[in-house]
Write a structure and sequence with these properties.
The chain is an alpha+beta fold. It has two helices and seven strands.
Length: about 150
């Protein structure tokens, strides 16, 4: 299964990156996560992050690629399936907006079964995370800019 969504956010890439890299706070802006534990607290290549989500088993994700200010990729492995999630930040044309693309790819012998049983939920979670990120970043930047 492959799913991708994108959202345009009225914030700078650095402002979005500050929210995105702080994975332990994700449960404060997306209801799709109930607990996030980043061992060592810092998002870096090789870091392991344990995530608990409603209606899904807890999963440990390993950061496989990280480009500060531009995004990261992490991978989770379970019996019969590998899931790769990508988070990319792309500055837009000179209007100050930024596009964030979230994608999720599941592969392995059990991936088609999981897609059939859980595909709708997974797609909804990715969409909810994208919108939650947009709302959180725009709230932060709106507050920051009004104080300036």
């Amino acid at each position: 299964m492959y799913y991708e969504t994108s959202v345009t956010i009225d914030a700078t890439a650095d402002e979005i990156w500050a929210v995105l890299r702080d994975v332990e706070r994700w449960p404060t802006w997306t209801p799709t996560m109930t607990a996030v534990d980043a061992a060592g607290g810092e998002l870096r290549e090789g870091a392991k992050v344990r995530i608990q989500q409603p209606r899904l088993p807890a999963a440990t994700w390993t950061v496989t690629d990280l480009l500060p200010g531009a995004g990261f990729t992490w991978t989770s492995r379970a019996i019969g399936m590998t899931t790769v999630a990508d988070h990319r930040i792309t500055p837009g044309p000179n209007d100050g907006s930024v596009t964030v693309r979230l994608s999720l790819r599941q592969s392995g012998p059990l991936a088609p079964v999981v897609a059939l049983l859980m595909g709708r939920l997974v797609r909804r979670y990715v969409d909810t995370e994208a919108q939650g990120l947009r709302i959180r970043c725009e709230e932060r930047t709106g507050a920051d800019r009004s104080e300036a």
